User: What shape does this take?
Amino acid sequence: MIVSINELGVVRRNITRADRAAADRLGGFGVATVHEAMGRVGLMQPYMRPIYAGAHVAGTAVTVLLHPGDNWMMHVVAEQIREGDVVVAALTAECTDGFFGDLLATSFRARGARALIIDAGVRDVRDLTAMGFPVWSKAISAKGTVKATLGSVNIPVVCAGALVNPGDVVIADDDGVVVVPAAVAAQAADAAAAREANEAEKRAKLASGELGLDMYKMREPLAKAGLKYID
Assistant: This one.
């Protein structure tokens, strides 16, 4: 990713986080619902997977920019974590080394972190699972890292194809990771609630035996497209 020279080697201590109530409301919805409600934007690449099934988290982003094979800044970002944050780690170049394990998870949790989203590798997966500390990552790798190169904390980053600004809302579950800009968090929560209500109505109709062909009025356009039924 391209970063301004003025944003290298800096730690921004004071960031504006999204409204907590809006962030918590968004946490009540699935990633797919939020993604669709926002107009199908904000989704990270599908290779970002949870290290264990069933994890679901929402929180405000604290960002960190790392260099390949170097996790020095993971220790720096720990100091900037506040209760309810999700750490979002991006890299300056592709790497799948194991940047994060149970010791850093212990530190992050003590500071109030809800999860880690990292466009790289993690390790100690069994311990992280036992701790119940959720991580979404690009890879799992036992390969360790060094501590030698300065990155940055709380700058805009691109993580797995999605732009993340410090303070944005991050929602993650088994379907992936979606980012909601802080400025539209409340609006996105309202839209997600409306979409979920609409889906509940459709679900009830489908459960009663009504077909999607009829509910979505598909028969006429299918006929126009040339679909024929043969008995």
Q: What stands out?
A: The mean pLDDT is 96. The first strand starts at residue 49 and ends at 50.
